[in-house]
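Study this protein:
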Amino acid sequence: MLTKEFIEKMRERLLADQARLQEELAGIVPHTELGEGEDGAGELPLDEANQDIIALIKADLEKIAVALQKISAGTYGIGDDGQEIPADRLEVNPYADKAI
């Protein structure tokens, strides 16, 4: 069973990660138009990479939001399958949703 101190430590980490990811997301500007000619051809791979990064950041932000909701509900550390998630796993990934 997780201690209150451990859960508070994880809450602080989650909030810090959330703030960092939101800042990173704000700094990524996807293109809506591509230039013409040779210059435009180089923009497509960059734009696709940016879209992938945006999707990953948004997915992590959603996982963090779920973990913070679990903390508020008193169910943090319980996986989606109902099994307890070990503290050492949560240390590595504070928004882990499975024991393994």
Summary: Residues 56 and 73 are 26 Å apart (CA to CA).
